[in-house]
Amino acid sequence: MASFDRNFTDELRMRLSIVDVVGRRVPLSRKGQNYWGCCPFHNEKTPSFSVNEEKGFYHCFGCGEHGDIISFTMKTNNMEFRDAITELAAQAGLKMPDYKPRDPKVVAREESYLDITEKATALFQKNLFEPAGAAALEYIRGRGFTDDMIKKYRIGYAPKNNLIANNFANAKQENLIATGLCRRGNFGLYDFFRDKLMFPIFNVRGQIVAFSGRSMDGSEPKYINTTDTEMFHKRATVFGLNFARDAIYRAGRSIVVEGQIDAIQMQCHGFGETVAPLGTALTEDHIALLCKSNRNITFCFDGDGAGQKAAARAASIVMPFLRDTSDVRFAFVSGGKDPDEVLKSGGPDAMRKIIDGATDLTDFLWEIANKNYVTSTPGGQSRAEKFLSAEIAKIKDENLRRAYDKEYASRKFNQWSRWTRKKKEINVEIPEVNDITRATLINIVNSFPELVERHGDFLGTLNIDFDATVPQMQMDAVTAERYIVSLKLQKYMEKLIADKKEYMVQMLNGADVRDKIEAIDKDMEKVRSKQEMLVVI
Fold first, then answer.
1. Can you list the alpha helix ranges (DSSP code H) found in 159-304?
2. Is 457 helix (H, G, I), strand (E, B) or coil?
3. Are 241 and 275 spatial neighbours (Cβ–Cβ below 8 Å)?
4. Which long-range contacts (CB under 8 A, 24 or more apart) does 29-36 make?
5. Would you say 181 and 193 are in contact if contact means Cβ atoms under 8 Å apart?
6. In terms of Cα–Cα distance, which of 266, 268, 269, 321 is closest to 297?
7. What's the CA gap between 38 and 50, in Å, rounded?
8. Are 384 and 392 in contact (CB under 8 A)?
């Protein structure tokens, strides 16, 4: 196997969970940290076949069979190595490379990359404690970092001059550029990171593959990362995972925060299982990496709109990775703070309350549905149901999908169908009846009783004392009725305008009320026509 591309097989092991691969052939149940089932390689009635998801291997305590996803696929399907790799690549959605013995030059180049990043880290560390790095050192200490923390995470400082380009003058330029540390300009190589507080980025094996630099002069963006290289892919790198792996195993979960300083502070204050995406939104690759360690994940984001949006995206991405043993939760830090600030002001206990109070995935999706759609209306309920159904459909486990369907069906029946919404009374602002109008209507009521019978309901809404004494005026019955009808049309038009405004608000909130708005528009057109007819008459 060593003669083949190790990077590709490593990516397969990263992308695919051994529990998923084995679970297609062997029914597994979780007991403690491992999954157990009856061995497929020998007959047995009592399960002695163990699968460890974190370490990526299986072992049978009955017959001694042992291996990973590749050996399992080869043995259970009686396949050659290449055929097993091809099948696994299809499951992972990866394109098969052209296999050939690894070029010694490629191996040497990769070793050169790691040698450069290691030595560059040492230079950055040294410069942090020199006069040029005084501002950076003051900043990081001001953020609550002790010297032990600085040493553990190998934090450093990249000065304004070309520290790397000058110190690696004898290195191959193409290798130096390939690490992302230097770029080629009109006058030779220059450093990519200048006047930056430097955070090394480790892969899961603890090797430094990239850097994240924080601005020290207030310029934006605050953080810049190494661009993607042969050794580093931002979408597939989880910051702090190399430090957190053992803690994730012990805690039985991982905690995901938004930034690397938050992750470091969490790890150093009793939450060693904390990690962070690297300057990008969460991706499927990030979740796949975390699920290799444990499928229990607590996402901890800011409580503002951006944090809520990030949490909703995380919920959508995590759905295909769910198993019936998964425990996915969402915690929010309110008050415009982040975990770093909470730890400073309230200590680990305050942060623990936030984490312990996290919302379960099932409840979180339900909250999203009810916040984003007007579930008091049939149209809003329909849209909310489509949202929930689309998310549930991503779950690969059929039994788990049915369980989610059943849970939400119960909630919809108990909450949506019985959700009685108080009818909103629309108080249309009608201009006060002036003295002339009041006197005119009193004369009409006293002079034409037949009009009172036809329009009494409307006249009764005007709160006029029709027994009052007013000057007499000359008006015939036709003119009198035209006056009442004109006033009725005016007030009816005002009510239609108010109704239309209400429905427009509902439509902006997702309600399907277009038919009602169209009906109001038709009524308004009829009112205008009648008003025009009165003018003509």
1. 163-167, 173-178, 241-251, 260-268, 284-293
2. helix
3. yes
4. 30/325, 33/249, 33/252
5. yes
6. 321
7. 9
8. no
* CA distances, 103 to each of 235, 268, 310, 479 (Å): 27, 42, 42, 103
* Distance in angstroms (rounded) separating the CA atoms of residues 520 and 497: 8
Distance, first Cα to last Cα, the chain: 98
Closest listed residue to residue 72, CA positions, set 12, 125, 124, 21: 21
What does each of the 537 residues of the chain score in pLDDT, given as a tens digit? 334 456 678 778 877 889 989 988 899 988 887 899 999 988 888 899 999 987 889 999 888 899 999 999 988 887 888 888 888 888 877 777 765 666 677 778 888 899 999 999 999 999 999 999 999 999 999 989 999 999 999 999 999 999 999 999 888 888 899 999 999 988 889 999 999 999 999 988 889 999 999 988 777 788 889 999 888 988 888 999 999 988 887 888 999 998 899 999 999 999 999 999 886 678 898 998 888 778 899 999 988 888 888 899 999 999 999 988 899 999 999 876 788 889 988 899 999 999 999 999 999 999 999 999 988 888 889 999 999 999 999 998 889 999 999 999 989 888 886 544 444 443 433 334 577 787 888 888 777 777 776 777 777 777 777 667 777 777 888 888 888 888 888 888 888 888 888 888 777 777 787 888 888 888 888 877 777 666 555
Preceding peptide of 221 cis, ω within 30°: yes
Distance (Å, whole) CA 499 – CA 412: 29
Find the largest Cα–Cα distance for the chain.
114
Provide, for the chain, the percentages of residues in helix, strand and coil under a 3-state DSSP scheme, each rounded to the nearest 5: 55, 15, 35
Q: Which of 520, 525, 530 is nearest to 489 (CA)?
A: 530
Sheet holding 274-277, edge to edge: 238-239, 274-277, 254-256, 297-302, 328-333, 359-360
* Structure token pair of residue 144: 């609550």
Can you read off the two tokens belonging to residue 475? Answer: 């008006």
How far apart are the C-alpha atoms of 205 and 124, rounded to whole Å?
A: 21
Dist. CA 20–CA 53, nearest whole Å: 9
**Nearest 5°: CA angle at 246, between 241 and 248?**
70
Q: Which amino acid is at 102?
A: R
H-only helix segments in 69-103: 69-77, 81-92
Class of residue 51 by CB neighbours under 10 A (exposed 0-12, middle 13-18, buried 19+): buried
CA dihedral of 303, 305, 307, 313, whole degrees rounded to 10: 140
Angle between helices 361-372 and 305-318 (to 10 degrees): 120
CA distance 390 to 387: 5
Task: Taking each helix axis as running N to C, give the angle between helix 6-15 and helix 69-77, from 0 to 180 degrees, rounded to the nearest 10.
Answer: 90
What is the length of the chain? Answer: 537
Q: Are 311 and 301 in contact (CB under 8 A)?
A: yes
CB 335 within 8 A of CB 303: yes
Q: Which two tokens stand for residue 330?
A: 């969402």
* Token pair recorded at residue 415: 């909450």
